[in-house]
Design goal:
By secondary structure, the protein is mostly beta strands. It has one helix at residues 4-20, and strands spanning 32-33, 36-41, 45-53, 61-66, 71-73, 77-80, 83-90, 98-105, 115-122, 128-130, 151-153. Strands 1, 3, 5, 6 and 7 form a five-stranded antiparallel β-sheet that branches. The protein has a four-stranded mixed β-sheet with strand order 2-9-8-4, with no helix packed on it.
């Protein structure tokens, strides 16, 4: 029983630590930035929603952590306590994916881990259009009539095809 004074001292210290804890507000974990996968046609712009999760009072601050390599970002606009939006504009001749990362921070909290926004850059599909209509008028049996047809690809990519007339 020679150790009982030490046990009493440890019990008293543990009680004082337990009593001190309720005086301090509990620390909330930082909010979590939410990753997303989006797609866009080459050379276009898209509004990218920025979102976060977590129990945080007040307005969140959105921070860009890494920039895209094939496009540019506009200014971040706040749309709600845990949401914002930023415009991404594709500016490269390259197809293929692009990405950037963002983080969020609540007042009096550390910055969250970065979340990736992945953007698939797609070629716009081709779209055939006829520049103007053609009127052959009245053509009698055995006669021929010629008109020029102007076709245009008003979409993207390469339009290929074959036209057969009887």
């Amino acid at each position: 029983m020679r150790h009982w004074p030490y046990l009493v001292l440890i019990a008293l210290l543990a009680g004082s630590v337990a009593q001190a804890a309720p005086n301090e507000p509990p620390l909330l974990p930082p909010p979590m930035a939410q990753p997303q996968d989006l797609s866009i046609f080459r050379g276009r712009s898209i509004e990218v929603p920025l979102r976060a999760q977590g129990r945080t009072p007040g307005q969140l601050k959105f921070l860009i952590r890494s920039r895209p390599s094939k496009g540019r970002l506009g200014e971040i606009r706040t749309t709600g306590p845990k949401s914002g939006v930023i415009t991404y504009t594709h500016e490269s001749a390259d197809d293929g994916p692009d990405s950037f990362t963002f983080a969020v921070q609540a007042m009096d909290s550390p910055v969250s881990a970065a979340a990736a926004i992945s953007i698939a850059v797609l070629e716009e599909p081709p779209a055939l259009s006829v520049v103007h209509s053609i009127d052959f008028g009245r053509v009698l049996l055995g006669e021929t009539s010629e008109q020029q047809v102007v076709l245009r690809n008003s979409g993207g990519g390469m339009l290929t095809g074959r036209m057969d007339v009887s």
